Amino acid sequence: MLRHAPFRSSHGHFQCSPIWLLHTRQKSSGGSRPKKKVYHRVSDLDRVMELRKKPSLILELSSIIQSHKTQSLLLRDLEKNVGFVRKWDFMALIERYPTIFRVSGSPPSVSLTLKAQSVAQEEAQAKALMEPLLVNNLRKLLMLSVDCRVPLQTLEFVGPELGLPCDFRESLVPKYPHFFSVKRVAGKDCLELEDWDSSLAVTAREAR
């Protein structure tokens, strides 16, 4: 517990703050200090979280690779895309899944294997079909937000859960200027709703 030093009153006398008095009373009453909480790791839970993390990393790296015109990413540029700490998780992922990721060339670069490319193409077709739904969900999210805007950093964090591609700012937002715009607010880039649609403000129950 933090101890507050005595302070000088307006009459020039030293007094103790209420927090300091509370601390001394507790100490004088013979009460023992509260025990520190001890946290134990649960190995089964760790394994579950690790299993959930792997597919997410695979999808993220696949999206990064596909976002480049060459459909490949120089390993030396991996850090620029995911950061220094996470880079090592992705390096281990590339080594662990040779059926998905292929390293070749000089300087070495990573790309998707032919089989993974085929799956990615099917996924791209599915995403194209799902895009109208993603756009509507994003519009609904903005309609629920204060001033109908959300920081892009927040959207990038929750984007995978919403089904948004990692490059949604470049690949999705510019396609719908009548719905979205990016504006600088309080030092942050925010996605802002351009058009309010009352039909989207209807609950699923009301729509039945």
Automatic annotation (TrEMBL):
Q: Where is the PORR domain?
A: 40-208
GO molecular function per UniProt: RNA binding
Record-linked InterPro entries: PORR_domain, PORR_fam
The record's annotation in Pfam families points to: PORR
What name does this protein carry? Protein WHAT'S THIS FACTOR 1 homolog, chloroplastic
Species for this entry? Arachis duranensis
